[in-house]
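Q: Could you fold this chain for me?
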Amino acid sequence: MTRTYIAALLATAAPIAPLHAPLASAQEASRSYDIAAQPLGDAIRHYSEASGRQIIVPSPLVSGKRSKGVRGRLTADAALSRILEGTGLVAELVDGTFVVRAGNGDAAAGSTEGSAANASDEAIIVTGSRIRGAGPVGSPVTTIDRDAIDRSGRATLADFVQTIPQNFSGGPTEASFGTNARGNAASNIGYGSAINLRGLGPGSTLTLFDGTRPALGGASGAFADISMLPSLAVERVEILTDGASAIYGSDAVAGVVNIRFRNRLEGAETRLRVGSADGDYGEYQLGQIVGKGWSTGHLTLAAEYYRRGSLASSKRPFATEDLRPFGGPDLRSNFNNPGTIVAANGQRFLIPRGQNGVGLTRAQLAPSTDFNRGDARRNVDILPRQQTISLYASGEQRLSDNLMLFARGLYAERSFEAHRRVLGISQLTVTPTNPYYVDPIGTRQNITVYYDPVADFGPEGVKGRVRAVNTAFGARADIGSWNIEVSGGYGLQRDGYDAVNLVHRLRLARAVASTSPATAINLFGEGAVNSPALIDGLRGSLAVRTRNQNWNAALRADGNLFALPAGDVKIALGAEYRRDTLRYRQTIDATADAPLVVGIPGLPDQRIVKAIYGELAIPVFDAGDTFPGKLDLSAAGRYEDYSDVGDTANPKFGARWEALPGLAFRASYGRSFRAPFFDELVGGANSRVQTFRLNDPASPTGQTPVILLLGFNPDLGPEKATSWTAGLDFEPRFMPGLKLGITWFDIRYKDRIASANSFLQTFFARRDVYGELIQDNPDAATVAAYFADPTFSNAIGVTPGQIAAIVDVRTRNLSSSTVRGLDFDVSWIRAIGTGNVSLSVGGSRLFTIDSRITPNAPANNVVGTLGAPVKLRLRGRAGFAFGAFDGGVSVNHVDDYRNLSVSPAEHVKSWTTVDLQLGTHIGDPDGRSLRLAFSVNNLFDLDPPYARFQTTGVTIGYDPEQASPIGRSFALQAVIKW
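A: Sure. Below is the predicted structure, expressed as structure tokens.
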């Protein structure tokens, strides 16, 4: 069958590769190559002559493609990798002959295992393995190349990542900041963007920049901020959807995302882009990248400027607190301008419009059973205004045939501005001595005014800046079959913002209590009725600054250990050192006479991590194209010692069996972990004890006095996980261009760091869930000890004898989760004449996310509920390329789900959007050329489905974790190669 396959290829192949010497052995030494960038067919011909290999290439596959060339001393496999890099083609050994075929084709994402034939030189170590020339045995790796990113119609990598089915948009993203605190979203003070595989939190997804950990972002140092990357410098994104702490250490629980840069670019490329959504949301992008190689080295430089306007809630009808148009309730705020007066007897009176609050009389007030409601979202931005400047440089220089130096550096600066609630507002008590006081019921008693200060002070908001620098440098040496690398790196990210239009609460209280018209504030008019000078004297301020810093060093070696009949046993060994620090400072002038400068009490000074690891790749048997085919096994282990949370050891095992040509089965097992964030290690420094009344259905009064234990457990340890995967890859020889990948996964996550504080009022009603956190009828000595605690507060004024229980809501290693599901990807590409057509669909089907708040609590399957991933996410594409034209239609589907955060529970409809991309080029697409691309995302302008999204202080009519509020957007992009 294989000879027939080759014969069929020969019938359609140009005489690109004449017959040469037999295929070199697996242990062939490196040799020098000097093949210039040129049409791909010519480059492969030169490679065949230089390497002595037979290469068969169907003519349609190389038509119109161009190789970036290869220079330097390399093995034949590595040289072929560079020849094919960026072409979408891979080389496959068939009956002793290398046959070039389509790789991932037009699929937006394809499951691959990686090989030397589809990895560039700097990526010879494929994500998920430390062994060069091979991918992770048994683990699924998805590769998204440069073309797929361009075809998506997205301007930035942060935007593109939201379309990946395995990613959940909850956690730190610019769209979710300010709406909830799940997944460390509240720590995202710089409006960055994180990757969150499986919805297990960004801290459970390890994000790498060219294999190196970057400095982390946010107030907690909880995520890698991909918004800082210049998108035009990204070559591809490799996603390992499997636990990999045995390879990489902490955070690699849900998977690893490795962002690879265009370190081998030859030539120059200029990118211009302009986009708009409904004329009220625009973006602009300008980028330049230049690459130059010589016989002993290479240099790449890139710069990008990106600017985008803000998107106000007032521009989208679903971003409102008034949900009546969608069939929901009116949840607008009680605060407005003009406001509402609540008299001493509780009666409400609406302040009339069209007056300035001076000389207001009782007769002008309108009695009401409701408040003069105001929509608090009207002065809040859905998305902030952003401006980013990013620079990237990569260089390498070979000092001899066996020694190379390399260095990479990334600098980015992003400024942002947004209207959002920072401190919020509260009702004010006005006494009769206030010169603007009006008595609604004639009793001359204090009144309460629900006053919105926006008209006087302007909307609250933030202006801030994020700066990041990440560097990596080192040397590689080839000694026989071994490669040894010594490397180091430094990373720094600074996040910060200054709040604007804050009200100083202490000064405001004094202005409300003032008896002089010159210093008293008028709360009774409509609009800005107070003098600007008075308002300026009542303004407060808030400034937040964080600094995340890391240093790292590594010694790595990999090579052949010994030979077996099926091939060489390969090994990788390494040792790593990392030092991380986090600094946090908040300066607030809004509550006291003097500004307060505060940090995070108990924050560790630093974290030092030392690690050693090893990995083996073992070829068990290889029967070629006959059954039982080929079997490979792998084993890896890593030991890490943390200066703050102790040590941990984690193994991983993998297997891949290619039973028949084109049909492979794979499986993996491993243990992973996540070390606590810095602000989770503050221990008793933030602990406090207080009395509280909890709702209790068994109490005659409906409430029971308890003692609450708040803060962080001082003995927090790492979160731990066990991961299983099993899958198959099918590429039938009878249907070239078709690929199918299926992966079943099971992640069992325990000792998760959590607090049940947000569910506090349900504790007594759900003892089956929270019973382990309740100590009923505590003895008198225990209660007395808590009453004597220095942090104790007794706000409700109860006696020790009235305490019925002690409730522990401290943050600790509390909960567990089990996630099971199925990832799948199908792609097909067919050459037609000088062009091709393609189809692809990829998705993730989640069956279970069983969460337990305590170890013995019943499992609660939250998949398909608000705040968690949906059961099914899909992305499909149909594309074409003929001559100077190409295009495609993409479909994005988010399944329906339930909103259990409201009562009764509500159904949230599914959301399916369509994207359109069209492109044309002038000139040689692989040489000097101009490419124009037009894209429309959300072609039919489909609004997000209605969801009653409520968290503390926030109400909107859509779910920002599942749907984009932007609407239909148009973009025109020009790519100039020269």
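A (continued): Residues 143 and 238 are 5 Å apart (CA to CA).
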